[in-house]
Write a structure and sequence with these properties.
213 residues; Rossmann fold; 8-stranded mixed beta sheet
Length: 213
């Protein structure tokens, strides 16, 4: 299905600008180099992470994203990336990769938008090698009661305007519930990007597949 005029000309450039500001790019530069081997990036989007992959550690990147307009923006960044990048225009809920075939899963500002996020996290666990890891940088539910109240109130409207983005998801809880074990340093970053508090409470870290799940 083709994307609407709003999605192509308003939503996609807006997401690129919001998620590509100096503060966010600094966070990306700290998180993305943790990836290694064959990397599956859930939500390639406009390719904002691509410049930060370490060619000494990363063999290639498989970029998953069903958003045609966003991936159009990524073409130049893909060509300039320091590592080979293959674009898979599919949803993360049903990946074509074989079991235990990737070394790292990377997700940045993606878990908020995937409709069936638990299915996507199960798929990520399936394709990841037992020794692999999931590296994440996400926004989500804020700890302050007044901010969370605004998030609950605005969530339906925001989701309609922002391509299905959900304000109420807690990435740490999502990962735990989906069968991942969080590294000890995984946790919150806090408000380290510009914008209203309902959008800017960040979480980052590394999770490992819990194989008995």
């Amino acid at each position: 299905m083709g994307q609407s005029w709003y999605e192509r000309h308003c939503l996609s450039p807006g997401i690129d600008k919001l998620c590509g500001g100096p503060e966010v790019m600094k966070l990306r530069s700290e998180v993305v180099p943790r990836a290694e081997g064959v990397v599956l990036e859930l939500g390639l989007g406009s390719g904002l992470n691509l410049a930060f992959y370490d060619p000494a550690r990363v063999k290639r990147v498989l970029g998953v994203d069903p958003g045609v307009a966003l991936t159009d923006l990524a073409k130049t960044r893909m060509a300039e990336a320091p590592v080979p990048v293959e674009l898979l225009s599919i949803s993360g809920e049903a990946l074509p990769q074989a079991d235990q075939s990737v070394d790292t899963v990377l997700t940045t500002f993606t878990l908020c938008t995937i409709p069936n996020v638990y299915a996507a996290l199960r798929e990520a666990r399936r394709v990841l090698k037992p020794t692999g890891k999931l590296v994440f940088l996400e926004h989500g539910l804020a700890p302050e009661a007044d901010v969370a109240r605004w998030q609950r109130w605005l969530n339906p409207l925001w989701g309609a305007l922002a391509g299905g983005c959900q304000l109420l998801r807690d990435p740490l809880q999502l990962l735990t519930d989906a069968g991942w074990t969080l590294d000890a340093e995984a946790g919150v970053v806090g408000y380290r990007m510009p914008g209203p508090k309902i959008l800017t409470y960040l979480y980052e870290g590394v999770a490992r597949p819990h194989r008995s799940a």
